[in-house]
Specification:
The protein is mainly α. It is built from 16 helices and two strands. It has one domain: Farnesyl Diphosphate Synthase (Orthogonal Bundle). Helix 12 packs across helix 15. The chain starts with a helix and ends in a 5-residue tail after the last helix.
């Protein structure tokens, strides 16, 4: 990446943050307040805070645009749009899962109620399309279509995730497809929409979309592992949170589908109607590991990351252009080697 692009990347990050904050000023005061709380701009009482999200998806928009030889400052609307879609999904996901904490504080629905949370999510989704459509680019129509199709995939993934709750026959392959839709689709879009909006050669958008989807799947698998074995100070959620709600995440599905004694014991626990106490939750985590679910998810995440890095190497033979994306992919997938 040239020094000019590197300098513009730093400016683009700051500009994206300001543009995201400005975007919610378009909302009515009540919805704006709820969205601003979720985005970390202020607390429940409107006291300013500094609790922004990780900004993974906007960062991918900017990095991939720079890697494709285009100025990141030209794709700020795309960076804002993918972050708004992501946060729409988080607010609604917390409602569906009944999660009361996110980013180490109460979720939107737990703070403002279910109705306000649903409206806030809807508002951020509407804003995403509006902001992106205003981008002064000859290829903006393609970018808007890509974001809309991505949102449909994300919703399909969420729908499958909900459907799995009432099924006992979910296969690991079905779970991976669900996670590719639920998480991989938006990371694929985040990696391709910048070059698309900046009118970079089509080969970049196509390859970077595959890179993003592979990284997204590895990222989700790592998140699944954290949902069982992650420390609350890292996840912002209670320990064993996914087992507490008996979610069928990838490690759990792999364990449930295994022909093992531990898998059979886990199936019996998951069929119980009563809530699991702390000892039973700990036992469930042990059973997932004994049945091979943890190992399977770890190996699959590593494989997806390796494929992603291979795609990156193919599209950018000069490793220096790919270095920031490679480093970010490795960090997102939970690997330091």
């Amino acid at each position: 990446m040239t020094s000019v692009l590197t300098d513009n990347l730093s400016l683009a990050r700051a500009t994206t943050h300001d543009a995201l904050r400005s975007s919610i000023e378009r909302l009515d005061p009540e919805t704006r307040h709820v969205c601003g709380y979720h985005l970390g701009f202020w607390d429940r009482d409107a006291t300013p805070t500094r609790l922004p999200g990780k900004g993974i998806r906007p960062e991918l928009v900017l990095l991939t645009t720079g890697a494709a030889g285009r100025d990141p400052l030209t794709v700020i609307p795309a960076a804002v749009a993918v972050e708004l879609v992501h946060n729409f999904s988080l607010v609604h996901d917390d409602v569906m899962d009944g999660d009361e904490r996110r980013r180490h504080r109460p979720t939107v629905w737990a703070t403002f109620g279910l109705s306000a949370a649903i409206l806030a999510g809807d508002a951020m989704l509407a804003l995403a399309g509006e902001v992106l459509a205003e981008a002064p680019s000859p290829t903006v129509g393609f970018a808007v279509q890509a974001l809309a199709a991505t949102t449909r995939r994300l919703i399909a993934g969420q729908a499958a995730d909900l459907a799995f709750e009432s099924r006992e026959d979910v296969t690991p392959e079905e779970c991976l497809r669900m996670e590719a839709d639920k998480t991989g689709a938006l990371l694929a879009c985040s990696c391709s929409i910048g070059p698309m909006l900046a009118d970079a050669p089509a080969r970049y958008a196509a390859a970077l979309a595959e890179f993003g989807e592979r990284v997204g799947l590895a990222f989700q698998l790592d998140d699944d592992l954290l949902g069982i074995w992650g420390a609350p100070e890292r996840t912002g959620k209670p320990v064993l949170s996914d087992l507490r709600s008996r979610k069928k995440t990838a490690p759990v599905v792999a364990a449930l589908a295994s022909d093992t004694t531990a898998g059979a014991a886990l199936r019996a626990l998951y069929r119980r109607e009563a809530s699991l106490d702390e000892d039973e939750l700990a036992k469930a985590a042990t059973l997932v590991e004994e049945a091979g679910g943890r190992r399977w998810a770890e190996h699959r995440a590593a494989a997806e990351l390796d494929i992603a890095l291979g795609v990156l190497a193919d599209v950018f033979p000069d490793a220096r252009r790919a270095a920031p994306l490679s480093a970010m992919a490795t960090r997102l997938a939970g690997r330091d080697h």
